[in-house]
Fold this protein.
Amino acid sequence: MVVTDGTHFSKQASQFDLHAYLAARQEKVEAALDRSLPIIYPEQIYEAMRYSLLAGGKRLRPILCLATCELAGGTIEMAMPTACALEMIHTMSLIHDDLPAMDDDDYRRGKLTNHKIFGEAVAILAGDGLLAYAFEHIAVETQAVPADRLMKVIARLGRAVGAAGLVGGQVVDLHCEGVCDVKMETLNFIHAHKTAALLEASVVSGAILAGASDTDIQKLTRYSQAIGLAFQIVDDVLDITSTQEELGKSVGKDLRAQKATYPSFWGIDESKKQAQQLVEQAKSEVSGYGDRALPLMAIADFITARTH
Amino acid sequence: MVVTDGTHFSKQASQFDLHAYLAARQEKVEAALDRSLPIIYPEQIYEAMRYSLLAGGKRLRPILCLATCELAGGTIEMAMPTACALEMIHTMSLIHDDLPAMDDDDYRRGKLTNHKIFGEAVAILAGDGLLAYAFEHIAVETQAVPADRLMKVIARLGRAVGAAGLVGGQVVDLHCEGVCDVKMETLNFIHAHKTAALLEASVVSGAILAGASDTDIQKLTRYSQAIGLAFQIVDDVLDITSTQEELGKSVGKDLRAQKATYPSFWGIDESKKQAQQLVEQAKSEVSGYGDRALPLMAIADFITARTH
C-alpha cells in the first residue's frame, strides 16, 4: 500500500500504514536535508557536516514536527525548514557526544563517527556549524509563517539544546558515569533533558508554526514528554537486548560503563511495561483529534515496538 | 571627564572621550551579561559558561552593536539582548578554539582557559550551551523590536558563526598551520571569516534592530569589514611585539607555529601602515553621519592605537 500526502488522514486507525507514512516522510526530509547544505569552499567542513547529517537515522524529530504542523492545520512546506533544523541540532549533539572527551564512540548509525573520519577539530567545528546553521536555516528559509511564530520556535529550540536542555542533560550524564548510586530522579533529569527536550521541541514547534492554541500546545507537550521518556527507556532496553548489527552502534556499552539505566532500576520486563504505559498515556493526550492524530498515535506505538 | 548616555553625540570629534565612553558601555554590557545567565542546576555547566563569558575582554562586539543601533535611531535597550548574544557567540568560539584538539591554549584573557578549569567535555558543552543560548536570548528577551527585524538578526548571526563564517575560517586556519606557502588570499579568507564576520554581524545587527535603510546597512557593512581586517592585522602585530602580561594570552605563538600572518607577508611596519589605511577607509564610510558616528570613528582609531 502506498500512502500519498493527505490521504492517510481519512483512514481508520487500524488501516493507517505507519511504515508507508514514515517511509514517505523520511524521503521528503532526506531530500530537504540534502538541498539544505550544498558543498562550497572550504569543502571539508561541509563534507563533515553532511557526513553526519545525511547518515540515515529515523528522522523522527523532523517527522514529528511536520506531523504536528499538519495536525494543527498547517502545511508540510511551512514546517520543513524547522524540521531540517531539528535534525541539524540532533546531529550536532550526536557528533559532540561521540567525541573522545565525551562518550568516545567509534560507531554511530552503523558508520564511523565524525571524528574518526575528519579528526576531532573538524568534528567539533562541524557540530558548531550545524548548530548555528539550524537557526539561520529557519530564519532564512521559512515561508508563509508570521515572524512572531518563528521567534517562538527559535526560543524553544535554543532552550531545548542549551544548558536547560540537551547540554544540561549531557553534563549530568557525564558526572554519573561510573557512579554506582545514581538516584532515579537524576536519571529522569538526564533523559528529560538529553532526549525528551528536543522531542518536545520537535512536536511543539510544528504546532506553533501552524498557529495552534495554547490548549493544543499543552496537550502536545504532554504527548511529547511521555513518548520522550518511553523512547529513552526502550533505548536502554535495546542497549542490553540488541545486537550491534541491529542497532548500528556499539551495544552493551551502558553495562560496561556501569551507567545507570532504567533496566538497572526496574529490570527489563518492568522497563518494557513502564514504556508501554507511557505510550498509552501519550496516545490518550491526542485521541481527541480523531483521524488527524493517526500519525502521532502510530508513532507512539512504534516507539515501544521498534527493535533498533 | 564622565560621559553620560546621549550627551556624547553633541561633542566635537576632538572632545569625544572614547575611554570614558567605552568604560561606561562596558559596565552596562557586563551588568547585562551577568544578569543573562543565573546559576541553576546543574551548576557546573552554568559556572563554566559564566567563567568564560564574564572573564573580561573589551566587549567590542556588544559595544559596536549598541553604537550602530543608536546611530540608526534605536535605543540601547532594543539592542542589549543581541549585544549579549554576540558576546556569547564570541566566547563560545574562544572556548572551542582553545581546546587541545584545536589551538591547545592554556591561557586566555590572562586566565586559564575553560578546559584547563572544567575539563574538555564540559568546555565543549559550555560552548554549545552559549551558542544555543545566544539565539534563545535574542528571541526571548528583546523588547520593542518587530519580529521580522529579529529574524534578520538571527539569520545574520547564524551565518556569521557557521561554516560561512567563524567555523569556516577556523577550518581553513587549522589546515594552514605549519604550511609554509600560504597565499595572501587564503590568509584574507581566514580572517574575513574568523574575525571580520562576527564584527560585521555586530555592526549590522544593531542597525537592523533600529530599522536602518539598506544604504545605511551597506555603509556600515563596509565600515565593519575594514575595521575587522585592521583588527586582525593589529592582532598579528601584537602577537610579535607584545609581552604576555600586556596581552593576557600566550604570545609569539604564531611564529612558533609557523603560522601565516600579515607581518610574515609585509613585515611589521608595512602591516601597521595597512591597518592605518583600513581605519581611515572605515572612518570615511561613516563620516557622513556627523556627531552620531563619533563612537564608531573613535573605535576605528582605537583599533590601531591599542597595545593589547
